[in-house]
Each structure stands twice: as C-alpha cells, then as structure tokens.
Amino acid sequence: MTVPLLSLQGLTKAYPGVVANNNVSFDIGTGQVHALLGENGAGKSTLVKMIYGLVKPDSGVMLLNGSPYAPSEPRAARADGIAMVFQHFSLFDALNVAENIALGMETPPAMRDLAKRIREVSETYGLPLDPFRTVGDLSAGERQRVEIIRCLLQDPKLLIMDEPTSVLTPQEVDILFETLRKLKSEGTAILYISHKLEEIRALCDHATVLRLGENVGECVPADTSARDMAELMVGTTLQTPERSGRDLGDVALDISGLSVASPGEFGTALKNLHITVRQGEVLGIGGVAGNGQDELLAVLSGEIQTAADAVRLNGQPVGNLGPTARRRLGLLTAPEERLGHAAAPDMSLTENAMLTGSVRESLERHGFLKWREAQGFAERIIHDFDVRTPGPDNAARSLSGGNLQKFVIGREVLQRPEVLVVNQPTWGVDASAAAAIRQAILDLAANGAAVVCISQDLDELMEISDRFAALNEGRLSTPRDTRDLTIDEIGLMMGGAHGMEVAHV
Amino acid sequence: MIVLERRPQPSRNWALATPLVAVLATMVFGGLLFAVLGKNPVEAIRTIFWDPLFGEFAFYYRPQLLVKGAPLVLIAIGLSLGFKAGVWNIGAEGQYIMGALAGAGVGLAFYPLDAWYVFPLMVIGGALGGWAWAMIPAILKVRFGTNEILVSLMLVYVAEQLLASMSLGLMRNPEGHGFPGSRNLNDYAAATSWINQNAGLHWGVAAALIAVIFAYVLLNRHMLGFHIRLTGEAPRAARFAGVNPARLILFCLGISGALAGLAGLFEVAGPAGQVSIDFNIGYGFTAIIVAFLGRLHPLGILLAGGLMALTYIGGEIAQSQLGLPAAAIQVFQGMLLFFLLALDLLTHFRIRLRKREVA
Questions:
Q1: A165 C-beta neighbours (distance < 10 Å), count
Q2: Which CDD domains does the entry link to (chain A) (predicted)?
C-alpha cells in the first residue's frame, strides 16, 4: 500500500470546558478529494486549524508523506505544500487583486510578472479574474477565486477548503467543482469541509464524519445516501418538517415599488421591490449574502423607514412606523445577526425577552417594566423551544449559537405574529435544531400567519416555502411557485454566475 | 505567559469588588507617592481618609462632606445615564457654570424682592441653563454627527470665559466697590439654597438624593432606562428594539446638562454664595470619576461621591497640615480612576497562566 499524503493519528485538542477533537485519525491520499463532514461545533474547524498550523494539538501526530509533520505556524504549513481557503476572506477592499495576492506572499515578484501568473493560473483552472480589478467591487464568488488563486500560486499538494460554497450561486458552485476536479486530476489532494451533503456526494471520493469532536465513521459519499450521512452526522434519526396543506387567506404583507438608498458605504440599495404575502403562505427569498438581505429586513422591521404606503400590513400603511408600532400591529422580525442585533450579548435572557416582547406580551405598563412577567415569558421560550441554558438569568452571550437562535426565533413565534420575517433562521444551527425551527415556521403559517423567510440555504427554502424569489444586487426577481422550480432556474434567478462572461469566450 | 480569557458572563463579584480593590491600590501607590515627596505615607493616608470623619475636628469636616459630595453625586448621576448609553458628555463643568449663571441671573434680577417663588424660579433657571448648554453638543451630534466629547469639552472653556465676563461685567455687585463678583446670594434670604448651613444641608443635598432614587427607578423599572442600557450594550439591538438614537442622545445630554446646571445653581446660591471668576472648582470633571467609581450605578455613585468628597476635604487638610502640594492630591484622585478602569478588566476577563502556544 502506498504512503498516504497526510496521515492524522489520534489528534486531540481540548479547550477550557470543551474537547474540540478527541482522538481523531484518518488519511488523505494523493489526488483524493476528501470530505470532512460534521455539524457546527463538531470540531471540523479545529481539526483543519491543526493541519494548517494555527492550533497545536494536545496529543497525537501528523505524518506528511510518511515523515512527522508539526507546523508551528501557517507559514511552515504553506512551505510544506498545504494551502487553505478560509470561509471568511481576508482581503483588503481598497486594493486590487494582484496587490492582495502579493501581500500574502513571502517574496512577491514584480507586479507585472505577478499579474501575468495570475492570468495564467486563472485561465488554466477556469477561474476568470482580472488582476487589476479592485477587490471591493468583486462579488463573493470572485473574492473566493482570489483566495483560491492565491493558494494555487503556491503549488499546493493539499488544498483545504472551509465551506467554500456557502457564498456561491449554483452556477458558481459548478465552476468551482470543475476547478477542483482539474486540480485533483493533477494530483492535488483536497480536504473539503462542508455540511452540504449533495455537494459532497457529487464531488468527494471519501468522507470522514465528525460528531462532537470524534471520528464517528467514514464512507464513500457516492455510494451512501444523503440521509444516511446526515444521520451519521447528527447521531439520531432526522425528522423532516411536515407541511400540511393549507388555504391561503387575504394579502397580509404588501410591498409595492419599494426603493431604499444604501444605508451605509458598503450596504446595498433596494431597487423597486414588489412583494405580496398572503396569510398562511411562506415566501422564501434566496440570494447570495450582501445582495440586500439585511436592508430588506431593516425595511420590514422598521429600522429603516420609508414612505408610508410602500409597506402595507393587512392593507394598512406602515412604512413610516418604527419597530415598536409595527410590533403592536403584528409585524415581527428576527434579524440574521444574533449577537448585537437580535439580542444584546451581555444582557440576560429575561432582558432579551423584554427587548422585543414588551408590547405584545404586555411586559410594560405606562412605561414601567414588569420583570416578573418578562422572566415568565423568557422561561416559556426556553421551555417551548428547548433552549439549552441553566435559566433566564444567563447572559445571551453564554448560549451556543444554535440555542440563541432558537431563543430569538421562539421569542417572535410565541408572540403570535401576523407577519413574521426571518433572516437566516437556521444559520449555524445544528440539524435537529434547524428542523425544529423550520417546523415552528411551518406551524405558524399553518395557523394563518404570513411568513417571509430570507435565507442562503436553498434546500431550506425549497423545503418550507410556497413561493420563491431571489434578491440580486438589491433587485427582487418575480416570485414563482417553489414546486415548479429547478435548482438551475433558481441559480439564474440569483443572477447566475457573477462575472463569468469571460469564461465562455 | 499570562493570558486574558474572556468570561462567559461578566463576574458579579468582581464588578462589586473592583471599586474596593481600586481604593486599596490607590492608597498603596498614593502612599508611595507621598513617601517619595518626603512625607510619612501612613500619616498622609490617615489625614485624607480618617481625619475628616473621625479626627479631632470631624464636627467641622462632616458637614463639608455633604457640601462637597452633593454636587458630585448630582452631576455624576446625570453623566452616568449618558455613559451607560455610550453618550460621552465630558463638559459637565461648562453646564455647571451655565446653570449657575442662569440661576443666579434669575435671582439677581429679582433682588431685593422677597417672595417665595424666587428660589424655585432660580432652580428652573439653573436647570434650563445647563440643559441649553448641553443641547449644543447634542444637536450638533444629531444633525451633523460631530463628536460630543470634543464639543462638550470645548464648551467648558467658552463657559469659563462667559463666567469671567459676567462676574466682571453684567453681574458685578453694584455695591461691591469695584471688586469682581456678584452680590452674595447668601445675604438674600429669598434666593439662598441653604436649609441649615451648620449641618451642611442645602437644597442640592436633597436634589442629589432625589436624583439617586430617580435614576435607580429609571434604570431598573422603566422602559427608557432599559433603552438607555440597551443602547450602551448593543446599539444595533437597541434600534431593533425600537429606540430612536437621536432622541436618546438628546435626552441623555439634556438630563446630564440639566442636573449639572442644578448643581451649579445650588452651589452658587449656597456654599459659593456669589458668581465669581473662579467659583467653579472642577466638580464637573471630578464627577466623571465619581460616575465610573460608582460603576455607573446610582447607589454606587452615592458612595463614590462620598469617597471623592472625602479625598477633597482630606486632601485640603493634608495640604494645610502636611504641606502636600495640591498637584499631589490631584494625582492621587487620578490614580483612583486609573486603577478602577484597569481593574475593570477583571469583570469581563480572567487571568490565566498558561504555557506559550500559537492560538
């Protein structure tokens, strides 16, 4: 048997209070696309940080081509031929592509030579990129190409990719996969981290599944069903949310001709939006992050106010009302950013229940606060939505992401909204909690509420929404029935592949 | 290697303990400072902290504590509301002067009318004077996004110039033989803020206690106070909750200006007695220390105001009896704030000794 490219043996890493990785072992062969699969918090990031030299293992060894490998820092890892594309890009908006790439190099060549090499690599691997464009103007997919090309210029033997498709449209995913297959055919190994099972089935040769920091199984993705892999990941049988057939009522939320200037320098302007949502209906709004999702939520929550009749709730103009007045009328929202937007990190859950619940749950009288009732409300959210916390006195910051998300969604759902708008309701939430949140949203709609679900998770939107529309650069496509849509059509609604015209020349 | 590790929850114990530890650290390092200056550190510390309360002449110093403490508490309560919301009014000293000028101006305008309503009108004038002066940075911030720290601070120096001009010009005592300074309001029964001068009681003491209670109820029981805290903790979450940031800025600067103005009026109509070039002695700045020393908590501010008054009076005794320079006392007070802010770290972080590692 040949020596594997990288062999991990018994890697363990503990942080105060939590064992991130416990005795993890597996091998990655040359030219293999190896998937690392697991829920949020399963220990995937810690594991790759050890391989990339960002974190030192407490115990265990790594062998690279059979010889011991213990990088003290990322520079050492890069010198040994290991490159990594992070989920969050580290690029400077104000610099151009070539300058950004030069910044990451030990000894950058002259700018003209570098630009030439960038062009060569980008053409070879089908990743069109102009080295002299300013990064601030690039789409998320193009920024990722910058990161990938930065890695490819080092001629890596192992390329680590952390959740690379979370910012891509389906078309862009296809392009990325072509590139990765080409790399594989040239003998580059790829460690591919994801929780999107269909992608892994399409791309990867081998998968290692992590759960709670331990290696719980390996499989060949092409021969394993997505459901089996999911259950391996979660450790229990998954329940698919159920939707009961329901009759649609009157129009609950009506947005017509809404245009809003960008609230900040790096925000997105909303352009001529038309949305109607009926009682009992779930409207899914997809799109790559940064195309106006945050602004749309702010317009609906009342954080950004518009002309009164641009937004109508049950026929009543509410566009010029603030958040409190809209809550009183039954328009509730749950923003994407849990800490600092939906909840105040250092405040207790009781105080955070007061944050949006004061009006509809009658937690105040003449401006005076009823803390005991607020605590009762917080306890009800914790109980009904299975929020894991010692009690309502704990700070929001002390909760895990998934638990806080359940709290935030539960807080709005329990206030019996007439219209609920959620942004990324299951982002960073484990599969079972995500299923519970989706079920709660569907139940709410079944009881006659209108729901707008903004999400980047297309599977989620296909699962819960009746109609689907995509946000692209602040414009909303015409909503269509979800049942008749294919993934390709959704991709086109999302704007197709950004900046890909060059590729087809 | 020493590593700071973020606590999952802010520590309640440390939040309560840091003021005490900071006072102790100030005593130790202040003692060192006094020792370097050639004084007996134990005696100096005792003179500052012990003599005003329990020394031979305590009967004289104790009422002084009320006189010094009241304006500090009154101003600090107002500032603490803003500080909690992240609105940094550094110019309370200026608002204090303007409140005194406006309030005293009302009183002097009525002189020598002896009517019950003179003093209440002066109180209103004082509050309005301070409020109006604070509205300048507030409106500039809301309309043009200026920095309230700079604007409010600069306005202190404008107010000082105005004070000088008033006490030399418009408000100068016509029977004062050309000396600068206004009529003495203590000699004008309808306008004095004294209740009982021997006990150190004036209306400012009552106002400070009322302000403490008011702030406590506001912050703990009222939606406005909740919104103030929320804005300081997470401004975006506050907007989401329905807070209008502009209105909150106007309220916070307005209330702190009004309370500082009141403090100025009570001072000028009582302990100071007259508008003079230098009747203000930095209460508006010291109140910033008091607000933080009291953890921005109303009851804490009450205690901290007492402590600062103690160092003021003790410092004066130390100056006169031990010959310590005034600057040394100011350094001593500055140390207190320094240690408090430094130790504040322990509320949110814990210190761990750990082997070196690439994180």
A1: 19
A2: ABC_Carb_Monos_I, ABC_Carb_Monos_II
Most confident of A16-20, A78-82, A487-491, B249-253: B249-253
Of A54, A322, A343, the CB nearest to B237: A343
Q: Please list, in sequence order, all residues whose beta carbon lies within 8 angstroms of the beta carbon of residue A348, skipping any fewer than 6 positions away.
A: A378, A392, A393, A394, A395, A396
Q: Say which of A324, A340, A367 has its CB closest to residue B236.
A: A340
- What are the two backbone dihedrals, phi and then psi, of residue B123, each rounded to the nearest 5 degrees? -60, -45
Cα separation, B344 vs B325, whole angstroms? 29
Pull the structure tokens for residue A411: 């807080």
Contact flag A356-B241 (C-beta cutoff 8 Å)? yes
CA distance B261 to B74: 10
- Residue indicated by tokens 């060949």: A220
Residue A322 contacts B where some CB pair is shorter than 8 Å: yes
Q: What is the ipTM of this complex?
A: 0.84
d(CA B314, CA B310): 6
Domain segments of chain A: what residues?
6-234, 251-341+418-501
Provide the pairing of β-strand A311-313 with A282-286.
Answer: unpaired
Side chain identity, residue A176: L
The top-level CATH class assigned to B40-323 is mainly alpha
Neighbours of A160 (CB within 10 A): 26
CA distances to A84, A456, B141, B338 from A44, rounded to whole Å, are 14, 21, 46, 43
Q: Residue A94: count other Cβ atoms within 10 Å of its Cβ.
A: 10
Provide the number of CB pairs (under 8 Å) joining chain A to chain B. 81
Helix (H/G/I), strand (E/B), else coil: A274 = strand
Per the model's pLDDT, the better-predicted residue between A241 and B266 turns out to be B266
What is the DSSP pairing of strand A59-64 with strand A6-15? antiparallel
Cβ neighbours of residue B185 under 8 Å, at least 6 residues apart?
Answer: B104, B107, B108, B191, B192, B193, B268, B269, B270, B273, B274
Question: Domain A6-234, what architecture?
Answer: 3-Layer(aba) Sandwich (3.40)
What CATH class does A251-341+418-501 carry?
Answer: alpha beta
Residue B222 contacts A where some CB pair is shorter than 8 Å: yes
pLDDT 10s digits, B114-138: 889 999 999 999 999 999 999 999 9
Beta-carbon contacts of residue B266 (< 8 Å; ≥ 6 apart): B70, B71, B74, B126, B193, B202, B203, B204, B207
| Residue from A295, A332, A361, A369 to probe the interface with B (highest B Cβ count within 10 Å) | A369
Torsion sign over Cα B29, B30, B31, B35: positive
What is the reported pLDDT for A246?
Answer: 65
Q: Where are the beta strands (DSSP E) in B140-210?
A: 194-196, 201-202
Return the bridge partners of A331, or none.
A419
Q: What is the pLDDT of residues A18-40, one digit of tens each?
A: 778 888 999 998 889 999 888 76
Q: Where do the domains of chain B lie?
A: 40-323
Instruction: Classify the phi-psi angles of A213: left when phi > 0, otherwise alpha if psi is within -120 to 50, otherwise beta.
Output: left
- What is the distance in angstroms between the Cα of A356 and the nearest Cα belonging to chain B? 6
As a whole number of angstroms, the distance between CA B65 and CA B307 comes to 9
CA distance A26 to A20: 16
pLDDT digits (tens, 9 = 90+) for B214-246: 999 999 999 999 999 999 999 999 999 999 999
From the CA of A252, how many Å to the nearest CA of chain B? Answer: 22
CB of A398 less than 8 A from some CB of B: yes
Q: Is A354 on the interface with B (CB under 8 A)?
A: yes
For chain A, percent of residues with pLDDT exceeding 70: 94
- At A231-257, the pLDDT tens digits run 787 776 656 666 656 678 899 999 988
Q: What is the pLDDT of residue B358?
A: 46
Assess B240–A contact: CB distance below 8 Å, yes or no. Answer: yes
B221 touches chain A (CB under 8 A): yes
